[in-house]
């Protein structure tokens, strides 16, 4: 088996040798190791991939690691089997560029994921789900039906054993209840270079300010709007010749590329979150 | 002579043909024309370069244009002789990277400018002025001597017939009086991707927010801090592996390049300002 | 009507004022003018957009311009009505990312084009044509059926009144006959930063050379392989951590974005070709 | 002491745990570890930084590592004390931008290096060496005095105990003898995006080809011109509006930034070379 292990703990001496030794003793070969220390915060981070050809299992690893190294170093950790594809729900509204982009990547085998369903507060993009043969749920959302809609979302997420959610230009605030159940597991794409132009209509705001570069930001969703841990950002130059419509068109290309990159990093367990920031192993 | 003309006025029909005709009739050959219309604001902008080989002068152009086309189209306009080098004062504090960069460009003939003096609120960089043989004035600035210092600055600017001021990491707020006398003629470099992280310590703020890209912004100075018309911006990727010190080191390269680009655009009369934004002709 | 006019001719005095005057006299309002002079080659280029509200037609313009200014300045020129959507044929093989990208843009109304058909030397992508309801022609191509295949391509292009062809990762050399009939009207995407790594397997070659940046290039197809006039290029950083497979995955995103930008420039008549180079009006 | 260790060897199981154990046993704390496997070539690379507070020395490490792990895994390796500043010679000709840039960084403490001397085949830049108080040697180079000049270069390099050489736009081919004595220790800056436009006058060639992006490449010098292992590359967009002179001006900024980045990577022992490629630890 190929096992990916993510660890973070207070920084201290001897962690790397202890962990690599542990894996070595269990018959594992470390094929990848990346580590990071935030010296200011005194936190240690590590991502390893180990290969075992001796029948050692994830279950064994989990139980043995839990009883030995994890408590010794006060670690928070996860293990993931490479062959397991995470289950990703897509939430959309009316814009189709991110949806088309993710689905065509999925369809080409570029994304190591399952997509159990697409959910939308509007019916408009149902036909794309149909084009790609993926179940589509229309869950309208308004002040009046808020609790009902939320309940339906949670029911679908549970039923389909969803591991994480991608907001592919879902123009609706996700409720606290959903966020609480999917901590650092909801990926949003915001159409600005955060923290500039958080909130609604960022392209309009960028145009008004007369910036020479616009951006897009993919981040994990937290309670505070557009303020969650940033996974990926990219930018594109603009000039006085571009109208707001041009900003939006250029932005679409940014949004889809930046979101896709963030989704791939998440799928490969290359992101770790702490202090509202991310460590991205590449 | 080679004359550069900058024009802006309410958008209306026939401006381009009227102006190009005017120049044609005076014996000028238009060797460059770039124009822009901000449709939302209904403002027309144009930059022309015309060559005259018939003895026609800037003085003649100015007086004839002023009496005919300018009032007809309600134009604001300026003309500049290509052979005249603008006079640029450099204001610095303690950081030397922008100063070294501008001076080495100046020294190589890359900047078509005169540098009558370097002014600083600290003595630290005086030796660089000396290295390059440029007069250096030490004008300390504090709450107590504010008015005096301001008066001295203005006196130096007048005496040396300064056309515009470059704040090459001048870590001191320029007073309203100076700004009022040099409207859209003071160029600052701010070490963030504005409007993100305006104000003090932008690299620290960027680090805390966990951004994946940092930037620098060159802008004209207005009363409101870090909120003036943006001339040029650029960015560089960062990651969790970078400390604040790394941000600062990467930022230095951005700052000097972005500031130098803005200075060159200003020197070539390629910038126009309106509604707190710029039109940049390239 | 809104008329776009592209002109190039030997550089000489008075062209801009002559053309803008001409349009003014016919009742047109020049809403956009961009011009360029290649001083080395002594060639003048201009792109104008003019609006007429007086019933003046493209036919009138064409015949009057042809008899007056065009011969006087020895101009090569074209005029295009803004409301006419060019007809674009898509040629593909087995890779689907550029095809999906163009079709989703088309479907969202982002491309002002008609797509009469998709042609491929393989059957693999027929289902995508079907997904989007666009006719699909399978025209296999081999040494043996070369002439036949060529004839069929030309027949389809004629029948469907195709204005230009987009090779959206068409892994087959287009024949000289087709190129001759569509000069500067066949757009290719090459998966390298040309002129580096022309020809087959550019990602493999880039990997072997150990470059730190990879690119994609969109260009007009000429007789010489990968040597036609470049329309658009972009790049993305890579490192020693990336395998050839990673290069290919990163490249896919570049290819689709760069090709789409080139297609949009062509659709808006913003490209002019001379000396195997392009002038791109933006 | 803080010790940086660079290792490469045939890929095999257990290397990481063996090395981290070794350091742990000697009382070292691994504060940084980055590792890479080129699977195609089956080579393992690692860079570690370890801190020792127990009086353990580089000499001890070198002798103990040499007798134990190094032979067991068939390793090639080096160790470097963080506090030792490498000695860097600068070779220049007539262009001053890279020289000014490196010297101003050096002067600000940004480069952890000693600069024992500047050498040039021309006298032009001697005054800059003087500005910064660094010895300057004028060693003319021609077909006639080739062997003499080479001998003088080697003599100076030896006398000043130079660790590596930076060709800061040294417009002269370095002789095989010098290259042989400084393998992967001569850093050049080439003013194109290699492998495009190797050899002389790359900006002219790029202009002729009509590229939309130009670049600069820093690489280690090998026998074959402009074909050595690439350390760093960067690019900047250009358009039809730019002349060759503009390419050169834009290129200057690229060259100095790219060269400085490469020099810093080398100074921090973050580069490893194999198969004419580099592994760059960041």
UniProtKB/TrEMBL annotation, chains A, B, C, D:
Keyword Transport listed: no
Catalytic machinery residues: 226
One Pfam assignment: ACT
Reactions mediated catalytically: (6R)-10-formyltetrahydrofolate + H2O = (6S)-5,6,7,8-tetrahydrofolate + formate + H(+)
GO biological process entries: 'de novo' IMP biosynthetic process; one-carbon metabolic process
InterPro entries attached to this UniProt entry: ACT-like_dom_sf (IPR045865), ACT_dom (IPR002912), Formyl-FH4-Hydrolase_C (IPR041729), Formyl_transf_N (IPR002376), Formyl_transf_N_sf (IPR036477), PurU (IPR004810), PurU_ACT (IPR044074)
E.C. numbers: 3.5.1.10
Superkingdom field: Bacteria
Biological function: Catalyzes the hydrolysis of 10-formyltetrahydrofolate (formyl-FH4) to formate and tetrahydrofolate (FH4).
Record family assignment: Belongs to the PurU family.
HAMAP family: PurU
Protein name per Swiss-Prot or TrEMBL: Formyltetrahydrofolate deformylase
Gene designation per UniProt: purU
